[in-house]
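For consistency, the fold was encoded as tokens, which produced the following:
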Amino acid sequence: MIASLLSLFILYAQPAGAMSAVRFLAFSHDGHTMASVTNETIRLWDVGGGKLAASLNAHDGTVSAVEFSPDDKLLATVSSGTVHLWDVARAQEAVALQGNASHAVAVAFSPDGRALASAQRSSINIWNPATGRAIATLKGQGGSIYSLAYSPDGRYVAAGIGSDGVQIWDVAGQRLLTTLGPN
């Protein structure tokens, strides 16, 4: 099963005459679906059957982040700095984020799936993924953000910043708690 899935990755990741590396991978939480990213294309794979389930080709630039929602119904992607939310079952864009979703570089779903964090330059936007509306903006305190992660209880967001630093944010209080690492 896994061997046939890997064979399909190799086949689809290298179209005739072109070399295209699989840049990002994400398993769904139930383990049944995998998303693979090659430049502008995201492919959804049926892991058990080892078959291509769908291709998401609506990106206008290189995809730089991909993450499944905790219930596996949505897939968040970042392409050319814009956050896209996809309905996994229909393989269609579900919600377009409005407002400060431009220049995004990273995304992370809260553990309950009711919020999505996106990093833009030195700030973090918190979104309602069901509506695409902004819930909050956490204004950065220096340093560009490159990665995000929610704490298991959803109370905090960690932001990986330049110079090996990590900012820890209180989401409900919308405040920076601490910065770990060199400043």
